[in-house]
Amino acid sequence: MAEEVTGSEEDDLRALLGEGPVPFPAKVERGFKPWHRPRKQYVRDAQWSREIGMLASDLKLGGSEFRYLTLPGNDLLDIRYIAETVCSPLQVKLRYLGFNTAATSQDSEQPELKSSEFSVIRMDCIHSESEVYSADFRSVGQSRSPEWHRVKRDAPFHAINIDLCGGFAGVEKSNGVPNYFAALQAILQHQMHSDEDFLLFITTRMDDDSVKDTAKEALVQLAQQIHDDCTAYASDFAAVWGPQNNTSPIRVADVVDTGEVFMLGLTQWIISRGVELGLKASVRSFMTYRVAPGLGDDDIVSLAIRFRPDPVVRPDPHGLVKIINPPPTPAEKICAQSRTVPGRVNRRAKVDELLHTRADEFEKCIQASTKLLGAAGYDASLYRDWVMQEYGESKATQ
């Protein structure tokens, strides 16, 4: 015979289990975010997916894995899209390492991120050891930090995607944390040990308010220095921005706009760091658009650079090593790798204008975004109306 439950025990059970069945909470409608606009899908497709697809094919990775370092949003949209458009068709496992501060248990957005991870990790083409790491990505720039060691464990990567809403060269938020330059330098140091090509993507604000004054001065100086030191670079610069009518030395910052000098300077810093670390850069593309309200210059750039190993031969200070066919000097390498950058910047894809004039591309981005967001848990049936409501019948692109 079952023992009778006393009132005290009932109270204990009630406190533990509650009064009875609890209904599921009402479905919370997830609103679309600025980065869900069609222009972001254009970057995903025409830059990220395209370059990653070509790299994976060139490296013949079929049946292997593609290692991907990223700063994903809570929806993991870049991971989903690369998995579906590149890895699944090529039968490649996508092994990603993401950095997202929402991964901490204290963050209110953690449930949303965990739900996305639960969904993504079960895709057939996702490697089971993939992970979104709970940390500030910039901390990778601190040598021997937990974040530095976490990157080292999975490095080298086939692609690094530093996709920011703010500025790569902006004012640091807090003391004691390295900046994005330090983080990227640390990653490139890890990539020194790669024996394969790899890709670097950076998406960043480039307006004056998003670039620290000291960083701006350094980037302008870098752009000016390569112009003055590399004849091939200066020739390409003159070809796209026109020869100057006076005989005075050309000041790059006076010829191009603020965004363009930022692109020139940042790319030059990346190329120079790569050369020092034994990496050869090939600048692939620039894409820009505007997020600030009203008319004005584009204020966000997405750039793509492909690297390949180019080991540095260090000179023997004792003069005992005999070198046949000495390699180019670092300055010669930097010049050769930089010569096409002005043309790439000048001929960049201006995504807002492109989608405004190309109805076919705009529609393609709408359809791809609808599918992608639907898979991420959004009400896909509302997406087109949201886009048209935000930008009107003019299809103002974004």
Could you explain the architecture of this structure?
With 398 residues, this protein is α/β, with parallel strands linked by helices. 44% of the residues lie in helices and 13% in strands. It contains 15 helices and eight strands. The chain has an eight-stranded mixed sheet with strand order 3-2-1-4-5-7-6-8, sandwiched between helices. Helix 2 (38-58) packs across helix 14, helix 7 crosses helix 8 (231-241) and helix 13 packs across helix 14. The longest helix is centred in the first third of the chain and has 21 residues, at 38-58. 39% of the residues are buried. Mean pLDDT is 90; it is low at 22-27 and 393-398.
Determine the strand fraction and express it as a percent band: 5-15%
Shape type: globular
User: Helical element count?
Assistant: 15
Estimate the helix proportion, in percent: 40-55%
The secondary-structure element order is HHEHEHEHEHEHHHHEEHHEHHH
Q: Gyration radius, to the nearest Å? A: 25 Å
Low-confidence stretches: 22-27, 393-398
The end-to-end span amounts to 71 Å
Quick description:
The protein has 398 residues and is of the alpha/beta class. The protein has helices at residues 7-17, 38-58, 77-90, 110-120, 146-154, 180-191, 213-229, 231-241, 252-255, 258-276, 330-338, 341-346, 351-357, 359-375, 383-391, and strands at 65-70, 93-99, 131-133, 159-163, 198-205, 279-289, 300-309, 349-350.
Key terms:
398 residues, alpha/beta, 8 strands
Would you spell out the secondary-structure blueprint of this structure?
Elements: H1 7-17, H2 38-58, E1 65-70, H3 77-90, E2 93-99, H4 110-120, E3 131-133, H5 146-154, E4 159-163, H6 180-191, E5 198-205, H7 213-229, H8 231-241, H9 252-255, H10 258-276, E6 279-289, E7 300-309, H11 330-338, H12 341-346, E8 349-350, H13 351-357, H14 359-375, H15 383-391
Parallel strand pairs: 1-2, 1-4, 2-3, 4-5, 6-8
Antiparallel strand pairs: 5-7, 6-7
Helix pairs in contact: 2-3, 2-14, 7-8, 7-10, 10-11, 13-14
